[in-house]
């Protein structure tokens, strides 16, 4: 059945808008401070940016950098590119398109981006 106004039903979810990451203007790239390897640069599209939560899309060019998730949990979905997260505990997670991943509060480690990564994300702060 095709979606039409007549067939639409109310839900508890409010859809604020539909975004194609290919069609929106991304902000200028920002160099990652103190990279471990290479010259990675990031861009962030924030859909929500509040004291206790943030959601949006993020992209990063190849390189390596440290990450410290003290005080927040992050849920992400990789929509393009490839990377590895190497935890300080030695655990390695491979990220590729389709990967959904939760980084717990307190996680520390290194991002190794091998192919420009794009992800959607939601952050919940303590």
TrEMBL record:
It holds the Pfam family Cupin_3. Residues 53-121 form the (S)-ureidoglycine aminohydrolase cupin domain. InterPro entries: RmlC-like_jellyroll, RmlC_Cupin_sf, UGlyAH_Cupin_dom. It comes from the Bacteria. This is (S)-ureidoglycine aminohydrolase cupin domain-containing protein. It comes from Nocardioides furvisabuli. The lineage of its organism: Bacteria, Bacillati, Actinomycetota, Actinomycetes, Propionibacteriales.
């Amino acid at each position: 059945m095709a979606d039409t106004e007549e067939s639409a039903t109310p839900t508890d979810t409010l859809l604020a808008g539909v975004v194609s990451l290919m069609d929106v203007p991304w902000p200028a790239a920002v160099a990652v401070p103190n990279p471990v390897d290479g010259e990675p640069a990031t861009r962030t599209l924030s859909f929500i940016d509040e004291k206790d939560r943030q959601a949006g899309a993020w992209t990063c060019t190849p390189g390596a950098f440290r990450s410290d998730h003290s005080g927040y949990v992050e849920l992400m979905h990789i929509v393009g590119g490839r990377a590895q997260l190497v935890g300080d505990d030695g655990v390695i997670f491979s990220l590729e398109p389709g990967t959904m991943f939760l980084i717990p509060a307190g996680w520390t480690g290194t991002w190794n981006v091998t192919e420009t990564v794009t992800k959607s994300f939601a952050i919940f702060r303590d």
